[in-house]
Amino acid sequence: MPSNGYDAKYLAVLPEEIVRCDYGCGDPSRFVLEGETVLDLGSGSGKVCYICAQIVGPKGRVIGVDFNQPMLDLARKHQKHIAETLGLHNTSFRKGKIQDLQLDLDEFEEWLAANPVSDADGYLQAQAEADRLRQESPMIPDHSIDVIVSNCVLNLVTPGEKRRLFGEMFRVLKVGGRCVISDIVCDEDVPEDLQKDPQLWSGCISGAFREDLLLKLFEDAGFYGIQMIERTNGPWQTIRGIEFRSVTVQAFKGKQGPCFERNQAVIYKGPWRKVTDDDGHVLERGRRAAVCDKTFRLYQREPYRDQFYFVEPREPVAIEAAKPFDCRGSAIRHPRQTKGLDYDATTEASKCGPDGCC
Ligand SMILES: C[S@@+](CC[C@H](N)C(=O)[O-])C[C@H]1O[C@@H](n2cnc3c(N)ncnc32)[C@H](O)[C@@H]1O
């Protein structure tokens, strides 16, 4: 795998066999913040989880999910010792498929041990039990995670299940939560014969995302503010002229919800003449765009907040009194709408620089 360059200070407390077990292609842990609840998809040896555990500290929590028993055993083997060394008991490892984050495979295995399956009826009963577990004790509940990280795993999910995986990521995140995913992408479609090669599958080649389609999967699942925050320049590997490299993508959840009119406007600073957001609003450089209250507040957060000036109305509109806002178009807000039709002030010139400007 391409080298990922973890911060050495977080590796110092980890046992050698975890440090050595290096199957990642980036370092999403660098984007995690203190106090956050983190979910690591395909946690492997637990290295990224144990790094995140140190970053989030005592107020945060880290959950690693992997379906591979030897990997889980390795991650769990050192759990007590690392927790005691750090004085932090904030990490857990769960057995599950990342495209099915409701089903706790440890719990399901317990049931299977007591109810061995030997025929089709048993299989159907087991399926019903799995559904019951998903509904009654989901491994990762809805809206429970601040940030999902993953390092070189999503490509390993079969093509038919990738959309389900993105749906699950969206489900478990809190509103305002985000994904930071490092994975392998390619610049052209992987030919079918390479997709069927089992060795290339485990080598993170066959399932690699075409780079534009990786971003599209986030978009289709309902994320916004989707950004490649890292992309290696040179390829990590080239096969038949197709380049494979590592990228880290960040994507946010939280653009869904009702739209209310509070007479707010935003002015896109540039440098592009115009840009389009994930809801289809077109924002022209320097023009006052009419936005709903939800969009106004969304743009005040990462990753947008440095790109706009925010114009509040002179007379605030209480949210309880606000009318629905039709968010489908891209309307321009007349300055009179924010100042008020009867605004008629004439004032003395105020100083605009340390020595005045005119
Ligand atoms: C390339 S390794 C990366 C491990 C770890 N993220 C790291 O950076 O070292 C892929 C890991 O993902 C796990 N994995 C692959 N597909 C998975 C799936 N569908 N559900 C759960 N875990 C999966 C594997 O068992 C393995 O531990």
Structure write-up:
The chain has 358 residues and is α/β, with parallel strands linked by helices. The chain has two domains: 210 residues, Rossmann fold (3-Layer(aba) Sandwich); 80 residues, Ribosomal Protein L9, domain 1. It contains 13 helices and 16 strands. The strands form four sheets. Strands 1, 2, 3, 4, 5, 6, 7, 8 and 9 form a nine-stranded mixed sheet that branches. It has a three-stranded antiparallel sheet with strand order 14-11-15. The longest helix has 17 residues. The protein is elongated, with a radius of gyration of 25 Å. 35% of the residues are buried. Bound molecules: S-adenosylmethionine.
Which CATH-level-2 architecture of the largest domain? 3-Layer(aba) Sandwich
Assembly of the depicted chains = single chain
Whole-angstrom Rg: 25 Å
The overall pLDDT, averaged over residues, is: 95
CATH superfamily of the largest domain: Vaccinia Virus protein VP39
So what's the CATH class of the largest domain?
Alpha Beta
Specify the overall morphology. elongated
Number of strands: 16
* Run of helices and strands: HHEHEHHEHHEHEHHEHEEEEEEEEHEEH
Gap from first CA to last CA: 61 Å
Largest sheet: 9 strands, mixed
SSE layout:
Elements lengths: L7 H4 L4 H5 L16 E5 L5 H10 L4 E6 L2 H9 L1 H8 L4 E5 L9 H10 L5 H17 L8 E7 L10 H11 E14 L5 H4 L2 H5 L6 E2 H10 L3 E8 L5 E3 L2 E11 L7 E2 L2 E5 L5 E3 L5 E3 L3 E4 L1 H7 L8 E4 L11 E2 L10 H5 L19
Parallel strand pairs: 1-2, 1-4, 2-3, 4-5, 5-6
Antiparallel strand pairs: 5-9, 7-9, 8-9, 10-16, 11-14, 11-15, 12-13
The structure holds S-adenosylmethionine (SAM).
